[in-house]
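lol so apparently i was supposed to do this last week
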Amino acid sequence: MPPRGDDVACIAEEWELNLDKLEYYRFNSPVKVLAKARWLEENLLSVLIALKFETETECARCLKPVTLAISDKLMYLYSLCGLEFSEEEFEARAQAALALDLDNINLDTPVMPVEVEYFDRTLDIAPQVLESILLLLPSKVLCRDDCAGLCPECGADLNEGPCACNLSGNIDPRLSVLKDFKLE
Ligand SMILES: [Zn+2]
Ligand SMILES: [Zn+2]
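anyway here it is w/ zinc ion bound
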């Protein structure tokens, strides 16, 4: 942590994080983390977290492995519990914090609040680093925008061409109930 009350000093720390798996994502190489801390006010610390990593998951439609390269930044504002900001007050501080580092970030970088009981000489930002990684992982990944997916009947990969079920003109099983409808 930079010295308390010094709003010019900026402490940067860089490290690599070995994650094996997180939800549906596998990590075959370490996550590169860069954190920069700076006091904005006496009881308000800004921490910029920059992340760079590669991760592997499955296409939501055809289940083929897909590798994503992610590089992004988020900012956290740590304040003392009880120091309650209105939404506008928080927003003003978030913009001020971002404005101090426009070489690195832009005014659209997300800023999230964190409340702490007290400020020690060090700060454990592991929960925020983990949260940042989760926030940067998309909830759904496709191998390509027009992935045709798997046949719901036989499981064939329809990206490789139509399967036997499709060729024989079978109706989608989800629609087959409609086949028996008769109009009086
Ligand atoms: Zn796919
Ligand atoms: Zn099929």
